[in-house]
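Fig. S4 source data, part A: sequence.
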Amino acid sequence: MDLFLPSSTAGITDEQVLARSRQQIVSLMQRFRFIRQCIKCSAKNLLRVDEVFLKAQQAVLYPFTPLYDLDIGQLSDDGKRAFTRIFRMYDRDHDGLLSHAELDRFQHETFHVPVYERDLTGWKKVVSRNNPNEEVVREGKFTVAGFLAIFDVFISQNRLDVPWQALRKFGYDDNLVLRVPARIRLGEDIEESDQNQANQSPGQRWSLTPGARRYLTDLFHQFDSDHDGILSREDLNNIFSVVSDPALPLWHPLRAHEEFDSCFSLPIMPSSPEGSPTSSTSESSPLNMSQSLSASGLTIVSGESFPSVDISAVSGSYTNVTSKKLSYLEWMGLWHAVSAISPALTRAELFRLGHIEDSKRSSKSRRGKKKTSVVPSLDSLLPSREIRALLLGSPGSGKTALLNALACHSHEPLATTKTRSPRTSSTFVKLKRKYGQGKKGDRPDEVFVAHLIVTEVPEASAETQAQRGKALSEILNGGGCDVVILAFDSTNSASLAYAKHLESSLLTDSMARVYVGTKSDQCGPTEDKDVEDDDEWQPATVIDAAAIHCRELDLEPPLITSASESMLSADGDLGEFHRQKAKEHIVRCVLIESGVDPLRSKPHEEQKRQEAAKRRNRKIMWFGVGVGVAVAVVGYLITGATAGRGAKAEGRGRTRSLNWFRNLFFLGSAPASDGTSTQVAE
């Protein structure tokens, strides 16, 4: 700190006056903490004028306020959030520590200079001396607190250029707001001016890359504090602490209603056991209205005509209600769900968490596994795949209750309200691949996980019907859907007719579909008839009519279920059994893998496959005939030419060539075992 230092041109005239001036300056700086330096200068005598302009330039280029909190004498919350994210980007083994190699990589990529061992030892001594009450070094490596302490030292020495160089290297602006590059949102190298086109069309298919899945897996195990395979609320808060306010998951309603506002659907977050289900919350309820106002920063002022509403209290309770402990498969399922809704927002969120997709590194990592310190769980070692489904049906057909029961979003799935906009939910099912006898003996059955991403599409209003119909066409034709679930009320024939209308108007023969009959507990007993053997049998119930329709299209019979406590919502193993069977039925309509028995889900698919096989066999047969004729002609010509160059007569040579040709087609004479010729009857 420079306070009126004497120079060669200006000598000290009065020490008491100088001391009094310094005391006034010090008291002024203590009163106004934003004053960092005082320089004695003179424009008349050109005393240190260049230094004044240099400091002014540095104050503009490297602002102090957003980086440091003068009231508490520490890095600001935004500064801690930014440097913690940078720490995660270089913590490649996900042990919560920066080793010498990881710190050297950060130093080289940011400042283009290496880190020597003597410098590393000196930094450890400095940060340990300045922070005696914090664990800044563990096992000879820097913790997050130690990494933050390094930049705190630079700031205390007025070396603001060092932290700002690092922050701007990683995309932070002067207000410490992280700018997500457009190439990250769009998944390709484009200009920044195209960033407004980041929200892709709903029909554009994108899934989590192998690198993203590995990063999310390592993140789960790193922040699983008690190593029980479950992420608690505190663990989730720690993971998303590097995200700007509100520091909540992307699928949380307080963020989802704003982030996914322009998308086709909204994600449904699993609710906690003690809270009300989020999926059954009406969009016009006071709860949703309050959270929207809270997210937008508006305040409701009570008056004579308006009730008083405490936004913070409602939002806080809503946060507690919707925060649920997540298992590994639920954690990955939610990421699959948001990636199905908006690939751009998912890539941006992964970027905010510290994941940088590197195609070269991803291709190399396939050959050799990356060393990591986290202990993987059994579920994370299972192979998995993603299946996307659209849930369609008439109003009141039980779509919402079915989705809630399958995904366990609510303890009372039947207590639902009318869904007004599409919503996406995630669930999973474990299946077995059954292998038979192989070359090395019997292969054991392999368990794999299928993440089922279901988007419920309610009836659109007159204003949004055309827009939603266009989006549905893009999803179905653009590969954004693997199977369509056509739900119908088992007690209402009009509901089945509506499902058939949706099938004929929206689906093509190449799209997989499955019929699901809901509210089966309200149906009476049905006759146990084999509809395939009795063509004159007439349907007596809605389920019978659906079975006949599926038989005509060569589809699997409809899945008959109910969201009541007698089936999907039953307690204990009974409910889990019914949910497992229902989800397995839907998944098997899509899977075409060895060891898994697929179900018929496309109209007349087996018949078309047989006809295609017959056409292929005909082509192969005619190709074989053509090749045989060509070989015969070429052999005839070669044999005739060879015989003509022999010592025998030309006539005998021709006879031999003709005998070879006849023998090829079993015509003429065939040589006997004693060397004589035997005439073969034509």
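Fig. S4 source data, part B ends here. The first helix runs from residue 15 to 31.
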